[in-house]
Amino acid sequence: MAKGKDVRVRVILECNSCVRNEINKKLRGISRYITQKNRHNTPSRLELRKFCPYCYKHTIHGEIKK
Predict the structure, then answer these.
(1) Which end of the chain is less congested by CB atoms within 10 angstroms, N or C?
(2) Subcellular localization, per the record (predicted)?
(3) Quick one: average pLDDT of 2-26?
(4) Which CATH number does the domain housing residue 56 bear?
């Protein structure tokens, strides 16, 4: 049985404010989360509000390419 394209895929979410601030400040780190999404229900890029331990606040985390 061949494996086709799965409906649920694993995605990586990255903090948007850490990525923008890395140019101005010394790189402390970038917050990343791993989650799953349904490819049929959410074809666009996923954005969730998650806690960033480097910014010390809740920020928007957007989906990145693997």
Answers:
(1) N
(2) Plastid, Chloroplast
(3) 75
(4) 2.20.28.120
Six-digit token string for 65: 């390419």
Residues paired with 12 in a beta bridge: 34, 64
Residue 42 lies inside a defined structural domain of this protein: yes
Q: Are 62 and 45 in contact (CB under 8 A)?
A: yes
H/E run at residue 59: strand 57-64
- Tokens representing 53 are 């331990």
Q: Where are the alpha helices (DSSP H) in the chain?
A: 16-21
pLDDT tens string 36-49: 999 999 999 999 99
CA dihedral 14, 17, 22, 23 (to 10 degrees): 130
